[in-house]
Structures are given as C-alpha cells and as structure tokens.
Amino acid sequence: MDAITPHTPEAFASANGLALCYDSFGDPAAPPLLLIMGLGAQMILWDDAFCGGLAERGFRVIRFDNRDIGRSTYMSETVRVDLPALMMQRLQGKPIACPYMLADMAADAVGLLDFLGIESAHIVGASMGGMIAQEMAIRYPARVRSLVSIMSSTGAPTLPPPSPEGAAVLLAPPATTRDEYIANFCRSWKVLRAGSFPEDEARDPGRAARMWERGTNPPGVARQLLAILASGDRTLPLGSVTAPTLVIHGTPDPLVPVEAGRATAAAVPGAKMLELARMGHALPIAIWPEVIGAIAEHCK
Catalytic amino acids? Predict the structure, then answer.
C-alpha cells in the first residue's frame, strides 16, 4: 500500500483551453516546484511519498496530469502510430503530422502556473516530462527558476534508440481489461527499472489499479508519442537556456539511453549531470533519497 502523504484534494485548472487535474504538497507559501510526468504517465507516478520528501525540503510541490491522460482533458483526433516508419521519417528530417506538439504541452504547464497565480517555479520533468520542461525553459525563460531534466533527451534523431526490451514496452498493445492492465504494468516497470527492486514490485499492483481507475486513454498515449517524434531536435534551442539546469539519468536506462541525458547536459550552458548506476527508466524507492536530495540542492 502506498504511504499516505498529505496533499490537497485533486482539483481542475483551466489552462490553455483545457482542464488539467492537479494537486499539491507542502506549504502554499514555499517556493513552487512543478513536476511533469512522462509518456502515458499520470501524475500519481510522482509517488505521494516522493512528493512529500520534496515538500519536507521546503517546496510547494505541484503535480498534474498532462493533456490526454488521467483526469485531464482528452483530445479527440484519431492518429496511427507506425513507430519504425516514424523513426525513419525523423532520421530523414521529414515533418511528422501531429495534432499537437511538446510546445503545446509546455503551454499547458504555463497555463497551470497562471491559474495558480505562480509567476515562476522550479520545473522538474521525467522522460517526456523532461522534454516538456526543456520546452518551457526555451520558450518561457522568465517562468523557470531552475530546470531538472530526468531520464530525458534533446530529441536528436541520431541518439541511440531504446534497447529491444525497452522498445517492446513502448510497442506493447494496450490492455483492454483491468486485470490485463495490472499485469502489463507490473511487467513493463520490471523491465524499465532495469534491476531488482522488490519494494516497488510489491506496490506495483496497487499503483496500477489506481491508474486504471483514474483513466488510461491509449489513443492519448499515441498522440503524446507523436508529439515527441514531431517536435524535433532541441539541441540548438537548448543553447539559449539560462535557467540553472541539472540532468539526472540512469546509466542502464533501457528506454532513453544515457547518451540522451549526456547530450542534454552538453547542450545547456553550465548544466550539471548526475548519472546513477542503479536507475533505469524509473524512480525506484531505493534511490529516492539521492534523487530528492539532488533536486532539492539544485533548486535551492
């Protein structure tokens, strides 16, 4: 069972023409820290106790469901994702048609800050969330006090692809029943963690059940994946980022290889890089103290 950490009830923000579900932890008067989750990942994948750990370090921690997942607004456009063909298109520099881009998702996050009356915040993003955080730092520099990009990428098409096991997680057909969803979730995260983490594995069925109840939306995941592929290479624009930047990446990451994190750190002037040998493409409980400590120290 997940530890109960006090937070505000889930509420809805009017942001960029959408309704975004969010909640927050910690003192409302503390410096705001916005957490942005990854592809098809709901805000509750920022575990309550992880958020509480950051709040205890002196932040008002805000998490939210991106558009097209969880309890936030679902878009309606039908898309078809042929990943090998799209990767080839990207390598050839051909444009990819997409209902929305990562820049639109960055505007969603800025809209949430507007709704909450927050002029600027520390921005922490994981995986696709790191890409959205990068877009915020590029496009809305005045809104970003500091940037933490976790297990993310510049989007450069020449970076190494996922491992076969990581790609299999990405390409797995969506579950159609609750039991199938829970089984897939447990199997996928075992692969993504790239190691043995019994404490997390014991909690996965409960986490998956919560996700299923809040809303999984496979067509939305396809649209988010298209947004990642269509948004292109941020290497050059990242050179304009002025926010103090920390890049955190696991060396055995099977989905976004560590070279992508190194490329991000190289692209942002003055960025610091933290590589973790026990971190795959996940934030297992065993590494929370190190990750929470690094984020808190950087944002302070």
Answer: 281
Is 0.85 topped by the overall pTM?
yes
129-160 pLDDT, tens digit each = 999 999 999 999 999 999 999 999 999 999 99
How far out from the chain centre does Cα 212 lie? Answer: 18
Confirm or reject CATH 3.40.50.1820 for domain 11-299, answering yes or no: yes
Structure tokens, 17: 């023409």
What phi, psi does 60 have (nearest 5°)? Answer: -90, 110
Q: How far apart are CA 189 and CA 158, in angstroms?
A: 26
Sketch the domain layout of the chain as residue ranges: 11-299
What pLDDT band is residue 4 in, cutting at 50, 70 and 90? low
Give the side-chain half-sphere CA count within 13 A for 168.
Answer: 11
Q: List, for residues 81-117, the tens digit of each pLDDT value.
A: 777 787 778 777 788 888 999 999 999 999 999 999 9
Q: What angle do CA 234, 240, 245 make, to 5 degrees?
A: 85
d(CA 212, CA 157): 33
Buried (b) or exposed (e) across 251-272, using 16+ Cβ within 10 A? ebbbbbbbebbbbbbebbeebe
Cβ neighbourhood burial of 129 (10 Å; 0-12, 13-18, 19+)? buried
Of 29, 59, 27, whose CA–CA distance to 46 is shortest?
59
Q: Exposed, middle or buried: residue 289 (CB in 10 Å: 0-12, 13-18, 19+)?
A: exposed
pLDDT digits (tens, 9 = 90+) for 180-234: 999 999 999 999 999 999 999 999 999 999 999 999 999 999 999 999 999 999 9
Number of H helices, E strands in the chain: 11, 8
